[in-house]
Design a protein that fits this description.
The complex is a heterodimer of chains A (about 650) and B (about 300). Chain A is mainly alpha-helical and about 650 residues long. Chain A is built from 24 helices and five strands. Chain A has a domain of about 240 residues. Chain A is about 70% helix and about 5% strand. Chain A has a two-stranded antiparallel ribbon with strand order 1-2. The longest helix of chain A has about 35 residues. With about 300 residues, chain B is an all-alpha fold. Chain B contains twelve helices and one strand. The longest helix of chain B has about 30 residues. Chain B starts with 5 loop residues before the first helix and ends with a helix. The chains are: A mainly alpha (about 650), B mainly alpha (about 300). The interface between A and B is large, with 81 and 87 residues. Strand 3 of chain A pairs parallel with strand 1 of chain B.
Chain lengths: ~650, ~300
């Protein structure tokens, strides 16, 4: 079966030379994305088969500089490979229809498609390279592919800025990863992951350096707070198919890295678990709170990724704690919850970003305050988006519920099994998750309600517009996956079972830890049957009593306009105000004081305090380093002087010794 | 899992049927306390029947959400009622159903808010915004209470948790009373009762639940109204079940104690609604945080009781 994967990679490689042969942009778009999709189908066939009939495989090569290199297909790699391929497939198919709008506007997609392919390939290679050097090289390829995919509309300043945020963040992360892997190399004398895992005795100091730099490096990629600031800047800048992949799978490489570190290294100190838990809870709650304050649809979704990364982090930290305290049940509940949420989040976040892409196309902008009534304009997108919104809030019967259920369960079990003050922390984390759930409901009712329901606020005609067939198929397909994985969560568990089996301490978990999830299908079947029955009864009663259409009741006021509807800002205002110490809400308006009304306006926006802090930090670094800028004068004579000085210094040294 | 005992399902059907009666009792008591005679306790039934026969009017701005939402709202609340052990084994029960309970109610709320925004009126938007805001603070109250019970009894379904409560342990009594107080607060907040919301006024600016369903009519309105009364009964029943009357006293005296607890809660609600005015909306989160603080108290009692 590995041949299938190789064929997939070959097709991708073919794609990298394709732009040289196909001249017409429109045909290139179809050909390149179609070829990607075909390659990914092959890849999916391989990874799905490998996960279902699992036996680990590893291939060793001897490379000139790096020495022996391992390409491994273990449970964790295959699970992430499957997730990445699934969403890349959706992204490639969606791009065919989506990029057509850009081609019609005369933008060149030639380079973009090349880098998009590079991004997809390097994401797949990243999770199978079990060698630190290869991983770092692939990481750079991924960064380059993602950066150039983001800056597609490079003539816009915002886009360049967003791309730059991505570039800085990803390199800050990789810098820490160099330290992490170099320390591991120093301790073990190898670059391969299996040697890292086999190495028996790490001394605590080494382990501390490795874990801190590793967690921080991968955490920057994943977007944990306070490293999240690049997400809300980079995601809105990218075209929808790229931002979908960024949020659904690119940031998951950070989660993969943290999970990989957990798999390789012994869990000695519970402090890392508690630390990660604290960071995750803060990321989850603040992420969604910031999301609530946004008016830009993509920015809102980007902040929601921070929230979901927080949820995944909660699961990972419970698993870590379970290993430290030798409680296998916590290990499986936490780890399975985290990985399942990774898959689920990839699916619904991909769906939401692709849907947001369609929304921005048809609403001609990303500001949700000017939208409304889009359910009549793009009904397929609206339906799929609704499913995505319900899923991301973790509401039954869709897939978000299953993974959040496992994480709640892990907190409750943790509260029971751990001693001391730990139950207090566990329960508070569960309550944090519930609080965040309430905020997510507020956020997504706002988003879906303002964008798709009611009347259009900018007065645009609300006639049905044509959605591309392929994008509708992709969106509804992803929505179907949300329902499938929600009603039959064992499907997801089956996929992550190999990864779970390889985590130390998970094997001793009591059987039946996941049995409640198996019961969900019966429960949901009952629920859906009840709802369907009520719906039928309602329709029959309505047919008897009659149905009429009238305009909305305006308390007798006749000239009701669409601008009188509640806006997104007013919907969220009170909740945002309550978070004011953390959220930087600023309001600009002139109160109406004169008797004769004059033209006035109201504007509010919420800026991220952490972003301001990071910018200030960077500016401080710039100031300090700027003091040495005179060295780099640009005058060739000065450089000759430097060289002369250096040689003279060395000669002096040689003389003195 | 799914109970094969027909009596559990009968208990559920009775529960659904009895929900308007509790609202009727609250209204009647409220009227008597303020010196009026008040409508009959069966008045809510008459209103529901009247609505079922009425024509439905939809807003021209409304789409399929407005048609779907009443069904989801009602089904979610009714299904949540299946998870409670009402004298018999719960009709549906599995470890972790406390989480499902909270999330089903959230699903109902999700659709209720969307339906309000679907009508494109500013009143409905206002109500929707308030509902979303207060739910954020109500959710933690439930998880503090149910979560600490789950951790303490080491069980994760309503049926098992409530069966694990015994009157012999003095600590449980403290715990249960505190839990009941938080559930009562939750009931006031979630069921749009007086200090949070005023179900009686028809001044749209001051309301939450009533203003969200301003544009609903006919059978849709019936479903919303019944779901609202069902939710009230759901929280009241949960509070009453904390005493585990059926497990400790047996079916017949248990039912008596259960029903009298419900009436007592209704009376308490009526008394509060008679004596108090509605809070200013900005104060509601403080009120709910106070209820959360009571939940934290619960938690502290248990953490310290378990210290070696």
């Amino acid at each position: 079966m590995i041949a299938l994967f190789a064929i997939g990679l070959l097709l991708h490689a073919l794609n990298l030379v394709l732009p040289a042969f196909v001249r017409d942009s429109r045909r290139l778009n179809v050909a390149a994305n179609g070829l990607n999709a075909l390659a990914l189908l092959c890849g999916l066939g391989f990874s799905l088969n490998a996960l279902l009939n699992y036996h680990p495989a590893a291939y060793r090569f001897a490379l000139p500089v790096a020495g022996p290199v391992v390409i491994g297909f273990d449970g964790l790699s295959l699970f992430f490979l499957f997730t990445f391929q699934l969403l890349s497939l959706a992204g490639s198919l969606f791009a065919i229809g989506y990029l057509r709008h850009y081609i019609e506007r005369g933008l060149s997609v030639r380079a973009h498609l090349w880098f998009f392919t590079l991004l997809i390939v390097s994401l797949q290679l990243l999770v199978i390279s079990h060698n630190a050097l290869v991983l770092l090289v692939v990481w750079e390829f991924m960064a380059v592919g993602a950066y150039f995919s983001i800056v597609f509309e490079k003539d816009k300043a915002d886009v360049r800025r967003g791309g730059f945020w991505y570039f800085v963040a990803t390199h800050a992360g990789v810098l820490l990863l160099y330290v992490c892997f170099l320390t591991l190399h120093e301790a073990t004398g190898s670059w391969n992951f299996d040697d890292f895992a086999r190495h028996a005795a790490y001394d605590p100091g080494t382990l501390a350096v490795v874990l801190l730099t590793g967690f921080a490096g991968f955490g920057i990629k994943a977007g944990f707070m306070p490293f999240h600031v690049w997400l809300p800047n980079a995601h809105p800048a990218a075209p929808a198919h790229v931002s979908g992949l960024l949020s659904a799978i690119n940031i998951k490489t950070g989660i993969y890295g943290i999970a990989r570190l957990m798999l390789m290294l012994p869990a000695l100190d519970a402090a890392y678990g508690w630390g990660l838990l604290a960071v995750s809870v803060v990321s989850a709650v603040l992420g969604v709170w910031y999301a609530l304050a946004q008016h830009d649809i993509k920015k809102l979704l980007a902040y929601h990724s921070v929230e979901n990364i927080g949820i995944i982090g909660m699961g990972l930290s419970v698993a870590w704690l379970g290993r430290c305290y030798a409680l296998p049940e916590l290990v499986v509940l936490g780890f399975a919850g985290a990985l399942l949420h990774t898959l689920n989040h990839a699916i619904f976040k991909g769906l939401l970003f692709f849907g947001a892409g369609n929304v921005t196309l048809h609403a001609r902008g990303a500001d949700i305050e000017r939208m409304g009534g889009l359910a009549r304009v793009i009904p397929f997108t609206a339906t799929a988006f609704l499913v995505g919104a319900i899923s991301i809030c973790g509401l039954p019967p869709f897939n978000g519920f299953a993974s959040e259920f496992l994480i709640y369960k892990s907190f409750f079990r943790g509260g029971d099994l751990l001693r001391g003050y730990a139950p207090l922390v566990m329960l508070c984390s569960a309550v944090g998750l519930a609080f965040m759930g309430g905020l997510a409901v507020a956020c997504f009712t706002k988003l879906h309600g303002i964008v798709f329901l009611g009347q259009n606020r900018s007065g645009a005609a609300s006639r049905r517009e044509k959605e591309t067939v392929l994008s509708s198929v992709v969106l509804l397909g992803l929505a179907g996956l949300c329902a499938l994985l929600g009603i039959f969560p064992q499907t997801g568990l089956r996929l992550l079972a190999p990864a779970l089996g390889e985590l130390a301490g998970a094997a001793q978990a009591p059987a039946g830890w996941a049995s409640p999830l198996g019961k969900l299908q019966i429960v949901f079947a009952l629920f859906l049957a009840l709802a369907a029955a009520v719906f039928v009864v309602k329709l029959r009663l309505q047919r008897r009593a009659g149905v009429r259409l009238r305009e909305t009741w305006g308390c007798g006021y006749a000239p009701v306009t669409a601008r009188m509807q509640y806006t997104a800002s007013s919907f969220a205002e009170e909740l945002v105000k309550l978070g004011r110490p953390l959220l930087d809400l600023s309001v600009h308006w002139k109160p109406l004081l004169s008797i004769v009304p004059v033209a006035s306006g109201f504007r509010s926006h919420c800026s991220d305090r952490l972003e301001t802090a990071w910018l200030a930090f960077h500016r401080a670094i710039g100031l300090v380093l700027g003091a040495f800028r005179w060295i780099q004068s640009g005058n060739i004579r000065h450089y000759v002087l430097y060289m002369f000085g250096a040689v003279a210094f060395y000669l002096l040294c040689a003389l003195v010794w | 899992m799914v109970s094969s005992d027909p009596l559990s399902w009968l208990a559920w059907a009775l529960f659904l049927a009895g929900a308007p009666l509790l609202s009727g009792i609250v209204n009647k008591l409220k009227a008597r306390l303020s010196g009026r005679f008040g409508p009959s306790v069966f008045q809510p039934y008459r209103e529901l029947l009247r609505l079922a026969r009425k024509e439905t009017v939809y807003s021209t701005s409304a789409g399929f959400i407005s048609r779907l939402a009443p069904v989801i709202v009602w089904s979610a609340v009714a299904f949540a009622a299946l998870l409670l052990p009402l004298g018999r084994a719960a009709a549906v029960s599995f470890p972790g159903d406390i989480i499902l309970f909270a999330y089903l109610l959230a699903l109902g709320r999700f659709f209720q808010i969307l339906a309000a925004l679907d009508a494109a009126g500013s009143f409905e938007g206002m109500g929707a915004s308030r509902e979303a805001r207060f739910a954020v603070f109500a959710e933690p109250i439930f998880f503090f209470t149910a979560g600490s019970l789950a951790i303490v009894t080491r069980r994760y379904s309503f049926e098992a948790i409530l069966a694990g409560i015994s009157w012999d342990d003095p600590l449980f009594l403290v715990f249960v009373s505190v839990g009941m107080i938080s559930l009562f607060f939750l009931m006031m907040a979630e069921c749009s009762r007086m200090p949070v919301d005023d179900p009686n006024t028809h001044l749209e600016l001051t309301m939450i639940h009533e203003v969200m369903i301003l544009d609903a009519s006919g059978i849709d309105l019936m479903l919303y109204q019944h779901a609202a009364s069902l939710k009230l009964l759901l929280y009241a029943a949960l509070a009453a079940l904390l005493f585990n009357p059926f497990g400790v006293l047996g079916p017949a005296p248990g039912l008596l104690v259960f029903d009298s607890t419900l009436v007592a809660l209704a009376a308490a609600l009526a008394l509060i609604e008679t004596l108090m005015a509605r809070f200013r909306l900005v104060l509601v989160p403080q009120f709910l945080l106070f209820a959360t603080a009571i939940g934290v108290l619960n938690l502290l009692i248990f953490t310290f009781s378990r210290q070696p």
